[in-house]
Write a structure and sequence with these properties.
about 425 residues, alpha+beta, nine-stranded mixed β-sheet, four-stranded mixed β-sheet, 17 strands
């Protein structure tokens, strides 16, 4: 990966295959969606953004409005160096408008993602969505209902910050993640038509933040793909890892149920199952003491938080993958491409350099400069942009990581 891989698109809405419209909320909210299908793999999906597109030159004025004061020149980030040239924000809305807006976004996205796979929504048997700060606790259930997906379909809300969509995909593929007394998601969904993704209304989430970095880095975005676990996508090896952020380098408010139990040695993930078809995975976060939605320790804090453990987990999964290839008699088969969370370009570049020192090398293209950091939506959008280049039989490495701190890293094979 190099800085020459950063494509200089000015706005997602200006891409040739993006269909733009307005969502009829609060006088009209700009909305754009792109659909991607790889017929040779039988995999498709859709991704979208909503709100006004702000480039790096326009963004400081928007941040001034959010802060209620002028952003000092010394605090204006060099976002192009971080791999971002634009992102999407909405104006302040009332709670009802926020809810209706994101319900319409999610409903349209599920319908389009199902269509990209040639499915009728009535055929979908599972919906797993990563979401850092849900606009409502029944969000996944409601967008599924509005999209025409049967009430019997298994719906899973995954709150693991930026790792949310990868945590969701991992649950759908890896039966070893099942817990006694809970539905085993992978076993339940094997061979079925499943929608997996991340939907992040981060402009709403950060609207009342006072963190100058967060207000510049994050924006709205969402992506959902269709998979048939064990058929179109097959898990080779995978690892889920958690390492609580004691220092509070990336503090995030939990807007979902969690006991906040920090008992040593106990998982910080809590599972809630209200009925057989609804599951919530809730990750403990280091929350800001002042009630704000997000507080960051700065870019070096994010590097410290994500690079060391991230390199460790990817290295371990890569070694397991290499051992598996040796055992099945195909040691020549390598990882064809890596899809990593786009926290920022410098973090991903540093991870790649550190992985190379461990003998771990595979392409990790930078793919979403026109969204900013979109948390759980990031890996799904990146995957959809890479999807046309993926061939049957390719092996992919998914690298999810996020606040909390949570990691889901998987090597998968596509049909």
């Amino acid at each position: 990966m190099s800085d020459t891989e950063i494509i200089k698109d000015s706005s997602f809405f200006k891409r040739p295959d993006v269909k733009t419209t307005e969502i009829a909320v609060a006088g009209g909210i700009p909305f754009g969606m792109e659909t991607v299908t790889n017929t040779s793999l039988g995999i498709g999906g859709a991704y979208c953004a909503w709100g006004k597109s702000y480039n790096n030159q326009e963004l400081p004025a928007f941040v001034d409005m959010r802060l209620g004061e002028t952003l000092p020149e010394s605090d204006v980030m060099n976002l192009s160096e971080l791999g971002f040239v634009s992102r999407h924000h909405i104006q302040d809305l009332n709670d009802q408008d926020h809810l209706e807006l994101e319900l319409q976004v999610g409903t349209r996205l599920l319908k389009e993602a199902a269509s990209a796979n040639g499915w009728d929504p009535a055929e979908v048997e599972g919906v797993l969505i990563g979401n850092s700060g849900p606009v409502s606790l029944d969000y996944v259930e409601e967008i599924s209902r509005r999209a025409g997906i049967p009430e019997s379909a298994l719906t899973v809300s995954v709150h693991k910050a930026c790792d949310g969509s990868m945590g969701a995909l991992h649950l759908a593929l890896n039966p070893q993640l099942g817990l006694p007394g809970m539905v085993n998601v992978a076993e339940e969904l094997a061979g079925k038509k499943v929608l997996v993704g991340g939907i992040e209304g981060l402009s709403r989430f950060t609207a009342h933040a006072k963190d100058k970095n967060a207000l510049q880095l994050f924006g709205n975005g969402a992506g959902v793909i269709g998979v048939v676990p064990g058929e179109t996508v097959r898990l080779l090896v995978g690892r889920s890892f958690e390492n609580y952020d004691e220092e509070g380098l990336l503090q995030v408010r939990m807007y979902y149920p969690h006991t906040r139990d920090k008992t040593p040695g106990k998982s910080h993930l809590e599972l809630y199952q209200e009925n057989p078809s609804q599951l919530r995975v809730a990750g403990l976060m280091h929350e800001p003491e002042n009630g704000l939605p997000i507080v960051m320790a700065g870019l070096m804090g994010m590097v410290k938080l994500f690079v060391r453990s991230g390199v460790q987990v990817v290295t371990e999964v890569f070694k397991e993958y290499s051992s598996l290839m040796d055992r099945v008699g195909t040691p020549e088969h390598k990882i064809d491409v890596g899809i990593a969370h786009h926290a920022n370009f410098k973090i991903n570049l540093l991870k790649a350099k550190q992985l190379a020192k461990e003998g771990v090398e595979f392409p990790m293209p930078w793919l979403i400069n026109d969204f900013g950091n979109v948390s759980a939506a990031s890996c799904m959008i990146a995957f959809l942009r890479q999807l046309p280049l993926i061939k049957p039989g390719d092996h992919l490495m998914f690298d999810g990581f996020g606040a909390g701190t949570y990691y889901d890293v998987m090597a998968v094979a596509v049909s």
